[in-house]
What we know:
The protein is of the alpha/beta class. It has three helices and four strands, in the order βαβαββα. The protein has a four-stranded parallel beta sheet with strand order 3-2-1-4, with no helix packed on it.
Amino acid sequence: MSKPTLCLDFDGVIHSYSSGWKGADVIPDPPVEGAIAFMLGALNHFKVVIFSSRSHQPGGIIAMKGWLRAHAGQTWYESPAGPGLEDVEFATEKLAAMISIDDRCLTFDGTWPAIETLKGFKPWNKR
């Protein structure tokens, strides 16, 4: 039986993105606190896939994978405790996932938000 898919955004969710956009293949900042541990735990229950605005740009996936490997340390490889971050997949287009985590979205609950709410939106790290 296959695991359900968990789709994670990269910038502002996994990568702290405190320096802002520097190019698809330039990723200068450390991980968001807890991101590595979260992904390791999630891999036990989900197929974890990263999809980012970097995903379809030249060098983007290679850079994200290299960054993740550099920050994963020994958690890159599988261990007796469970899967390693080498099992994280990267998508080049938005996929059908059971659930997604993104720092720049609203959950639609059947009620359309006010335009002023949209205009005033700020991701968690800018509030």
